[in-house]
Design a protein that fits this description.
The structure holds 2 protein chains of 2 kinds. In chain A, about 60% of the residues lie in helices and about 0% in strands. Chain A has helices spanning about 15-25, 30-35, 40-60, 60-70, 90-105, 125-130, 150-155, 160, 175-180, 185-195, 225-260, 265-305, 325-335, 335-370, 380-385, 390, 395-405, 410-420, 420-430, 450-475, 480-490, 495-525, 525-530, 560-570, 580-600, 605-610, and strands spanning about 1-5, 200-205, 205, 265. In chain A, the strands form 2 sheets. A two-stranded antiparallel sheet of chain A has the order 1-4. A two-stranded antiparallel sheet of chain A has the order 2-3. In chain A, β2 (about 200-205) and β3 form a beta hairpin. Chain B is mostly helical. Chain B has helices at about 5-10, 15-50, 75-80, 90-125, 130-140, 150-160, 165-185, 190-200, 205-215, 220-235, 235-240, 250-260, 270-290, 290-304. The longest helix of chain B has about 35 residues, at about 15-50. Classes of the chains: A mainly alpha, B mainly alpha. Chains A and B meet through α11, α12, α14, α15 and α16 of A and α1, α2, α4, α5 and α6 of B.
Chain lengths: ~600, ~300
């Protein structure tokens, strides 16, 4: 520690001076620390804006832009039409006309005659050329390995040797940020505009094409890429803003401390305590980074898609995505066709989630009770067989069932062989599950068998899901103290009473969290539907509203739950409805997320944390 | 269990009527168990029989095993069919090995990442802890394929498309939030005094974790490891979107065999053989690790 030698850099340490230091740090990180006479720390914080600016300028062409504005660019390096890497040499002719108009733009009208060869090091090797021409992020000076000629070129002024410039036409739009911007400026521009130029549009003296490596500004804007880059840029920006604010608050608190104690913390000390508190962040940083890139950014991306008009109709590069605000939400909420289909699917999703959770729970409970009953010998053997459906990968068993319920599958074969086909099909017809009493039974295909397919989906899930609850409940049954039962038996309680007043409440209270969890799991149980029925049978075409027809083969089936329909909406080739899928994703997220937050809030460990 | 020692104690005094009642109950219980076991086993038996039946029609599968139709052709197909003639292994084997390697790497990654973040969340106080915990919980509610378009873009930007190993990043990112909760819940039950004693003896925080806490948390880490090992085998959507057919995982390979739209490969009996070959090792692992899994499921339910 050393004594503060007064505050020579600042005004007399008055009451407001801590605030001034913080403001100085906000203006430029490090400034406040400097005012606090902590030079090393100031240097550290000063790296923040340096890093920020070097990211922006390292990825941009702003230097070239300023050179262009100041007229330092010789006209021969203005791009013409759409040069291909291969035929650069045959372009001198057309160049003169273009340079003319650009000359007008920059007040440089005399220059109409062009030197014939613009790149002395060029021997017509298209690949060498492509390697040397910078892409929008590339370093123009990076020499191609072992290529002496190109290195020479790089040593020359790059204005003349390697770089072409957009040939802005007067009176036409110029997207300067798009053409020259760096990571941050271009990212934000892309996020807000989602691109401006598509294939075939004339721009900067050329025509936009899908991809142009030599003159990147003549590449068409890809809205999805711009949206994604914009999101990544925003994430990085937020980190910088946080650092910025942290710098200010650090300066503020240091100054306060200086006021209080009159001593300045040495850099060593500060580093020691900071390193201590940074440990947690460093250790968990890999997880956070992974989550940020592969979970958070994709989620925000999907959220943002809900506010665009992105569907299969937009071929990227040829058409731009646009921000449409809440239009998609409005459309889905007001269009009776979509609303009714959504209502039916939502209803079935809820029924499915409740029924599948409830049925597996009850069967699992019952099985656990039976196996654990004192009458049963060789409990372990029974249990091992009964948990087989849980141990077999569900993907495999679902697809086996898909085959078993085929027209020629196990179930129909069995019904035929045992002579039960007729009574069963009549029975199914009578109770309304089957639309027509057919032999064999078509379990998943015809539109009139929707209810039958739904029933089969739930029953199959029962086969798959009951063992899970059985295992859970078996575990809980063993923890119920035996003296409870003893006391009850001595008091004359019957078996039913013992179950009703001891077993049931004990098991229920212990399994309610897992019930809620399995409800939200089943709500999104994509596999149970998609691998078994593929969503089928389809809806009656006569009942499908006209406004739904745009989804083509992404039409939901009668067993589709929300999540599998979203999958179809997003990934049916040729009929993608990304914006609608995104809106439904948000709805699912709100429902399931709400459910699990509720579940968490009532969990004991979390309440303790809150009280900490 | 339910009070069996009492009941055996009481049993001596049971009257004949009660005894008879108990016996009928036992009969019904055994009947029920038999019904359940038959229901469990029949589809499995059907799968086994189908995999050894010749032909490619479901209707050709006998309900009762019939040795006239016995054939190993489906296994031969799985072990010999190569879509590329220069491949070292058959399509099925290479898909299997590919998935296996992804599963192993995924297991290691997930256990390491989750245990580190679980350690941090259980043992330290820091700014933003509560917010992060709630965020974690919300994130895990969002199925990973909903961000599929963005994930696809990220993979394309990094040049990771058709490279199965990079799927681990997505699986790990998806597994961290929930598992962090689990480990955190578990580690809170390990007394802090153990840490403190080690700290006094001069152990660093990282050492405390690897040498003391990690061995103590073996059972919950075992659960997480099994889960992480399983996810690449079961996953259909990510590999379907991010990998081409030359780099498929075994799930995609099997799905294609049952997909009647892919006429080149459609053969449900080949599928049955492949499904059996896949199910045997997976089922064995699950049964073997049962103890850990049941423990972890209970813990997961408890900790929310």
């Amino acid at each position: 520690m050393r004594k503060a030698k007064g505050s020579s850099t600042m005004a007399k340490p008055g009451k407001g001076s801590a605030l001034w230091v913080a403001l100085a740090s906000l203006l430029l990180p490090g400034l406040g620390q400097l005012a606090n006479r902590q030079r090393l720390k100031a240097l550290g914080w000063f790296l923040v804006p340096v890093l920020f600016l070097s990211i922006e300028f390292g990825t941009s062409q702003w230097g070239r832009y300023f050179a262009l504005r100041q007229g330092k660019v010789p006209p021969e390096s203005i791009a013409n039409e759409t040069p291909q890497a291969g035929d650069l040499q045959g372009q001198e002719g057309s160049q003169s006309q273009q340079a003319d108009s650009l000359g007008a733009l920059f007040g440089d009208t005399e220059n109409t005659v062009q030197p014939a060869v613009q790149e002395p090091s060029y021997d017509g090797d298209p690949f060498a050329a492509a390697a040397d021409f910078p892409s929008d992020t590339g370093d123009p000076f990076a020499p191609a390995e072992g290529d002496q000629a190109l290195q020479d070129a790089a040593n020359e002024s790059y204005f003349t040797a390697t770089y072409k410039y957009p040939n802005y036409q007067p009176g036409e739009p110029q997207y300067v940020v798009r053409d020259f911007g760096g990571f941050f400026t271009k990212g934000i521009w892309g996020l807000f505009s989602l691109g401006r130029l598509v294939i075939g549009q004339p721009y900067a003296g050329g025509t936009i094409e899908l991809y142009n490596k030599v003159t990147p500004w003549l590449s068409a804007d890809n809205s999805v890429v711009l949206l994604g880059n914009g999101l990544i840029c925003m994430a990085v920006l937020i980190v910088f803003v946080l650092l910025w604010v942290l710098g200010a608050s650090d300066a503020y608190s240091t100054r306060k401390k200086i006021h209080a104690t009159g001593e300045i913390q040495s850099f060593k000390e500060w580093w020691h305590t900071t390193w201590d508190s940074l440990y947690v962040y460093i250790v968990s940083a890999p997880s956070f980074v992974l989550i940020l890139i592969f979970t958070v950014i994709p989620i925000f991306f999907t959220f943002l898609l809900a506010f665009t008009n992105y569907t299969y109709k937009i071929k990227l590069g040829a058409k731009l995505i646009e921000w449409v605000g809440l239009n998609t939400f409005k459309y889905l909420a007001l269009d009776p066709g979509w609303l009714s289909i959504f209502g039916q699917i939502f209803l079935w999703t809820v029924i499915w989630a409740v029924m599948s959770t409830f049925s597996t729970y009850v069967l699992g409970f019952f099985n656990a009770m039976v196996v654990e009953s004192p009458n049963i010998k060789a409990k372990k053997a029974w249990r091992s067989v009964m948990i087989l459906p849980w141990a077999i990968p569900s993907l495999v068993s679902l697809m086996v069932f898909r085959n078993a319920f085929d027209k020629d599958g196990l179930v129909n074969q069995f019904l035929f062989a045992s002579g039960l086909m007729e009574p069963v099909t009549n029975f199914l017809y009578r109770i309304g599950l089957e639309g027509r009493p057919e032999q064999p039974i078509f379990w998943f295909q015809p539109i009139y068998n929707g209810n039958l397919a739904r029933f089969v989906v739930i029953m199959t899930n029962l086969w798959l899901g009951a063992p899970y609850h059985m295992m859970m409940i078996t575990g809980i049954l063993t923890t119920i103290p035996k003296d409870l039962y003893e006391a009850a038996t001595i008091d004359g309680a019957t078996g039913g009473q013992r179950f009703r007043y001891i077993t049931l409440p004990m098991v229920l209270s212990a399994t309610i969290p897992s019930l809620i969890m399995s409800f939200s799991f089943n709500f999104n149980n994509f596999g149970a539907v998609y691998f078994l029925t593929g969503g089928g049978p389809s809806w009656d075409p006569a009942k499908v509203p006209d406004s739904m027809r745009i989804v083509g083969s992404a039409m939901p089936g009668q067993t589709d739950i929300l999540i599998s329909w979203i999958y179809k909406l997003s990934f049916t080739k040729g009929f993608e409805q990304y914006n609608i899928a995104a809106v439904y994703s948000i709805i699912i997220f709100l429902i399931v997320g709400g459910f699990s937050v509720y579940n968490l809030m009532r969990a004991k460990s979390f309440r303790e944390e809150a009280g900490e | 269990m339910s009070g069996s020692n009492v009941l055996t104690a009481v049993r001596g005094k049971e009257s004949g009527r009660v005894k008879a009642k108990r016996r009928t109950l036992a009969v019904f219980q055994y009947l029920w168990l038999i019904v359940i076991c038959v229901a469990v086993l029949i589809p499995i038996l059907w799968m086994i029989v189908a995999s050894f039946t010749k032909g490619k029609l479901l209707s050709g599968i006998p309900l009762i095993p019939n040795f006239k139709d016995f054939s190993l052709e489906h296994y031969q197909y799985l072990f010999s069919y190569k879509s590329q003639s220069n491949a070292m292994f058959s399509d099925f084997i290479s898909a299997f090995l590919r998935t296996l390697s992804v599963a192993v790497v995924n297991m290691a990654t997930v256990v390491l990442l989750c245990s580190m973040s679980g350690y941090v969340f259980s043992r330290f106080r820091f700014k933003g802890k509560r917010t992060l915990l709630v965020t974690f919980l919300l994130l895990q509610m969002f199925p990973s394929f909903m961000g599929m378009i963005a994930i696809f873009m990220i993979f394309r930007a990094f040049g990771w498309l058709n490279k199965p190993m990079y799927l681990v990043f997505i699986y790990a990112a998806g597994a961290v939030p929930y598992n962090t909760y689990l480990i955190r819940g578990y580690m809170r039950s390990i007394p802090m005094s153990i840490d403190e004693a080690a700290m006094i003896d001069g152990a660093s925080r990282t050492q405390i974790y690897f040498k003391i806490l990690m061995p103590l948390a073996k059972s919950i880490l075992g659960f997480i490891a099994v889960n992480a090992f399983m996810s690449p085998w079961m996953d259909y959507m990510l590999p379907n979107q991010l990998l081409n057919m030359q780099n498929q995982t075994v799930a995609i390979f099997l799905y294609r065999l049952t997909d009647s739209l892919s006429t080149m490969y459609y053969n449900p009996l080949n599928f049955m053989a492949g499904a059996l070959l896949l199910a045997i090792p997976i089922t064995a692992v699950q049964m073997y690790m049962q103890k850990y899994i049941v423990y972890g499921m209970a813990a997961g339910a408890e900790k929310g």
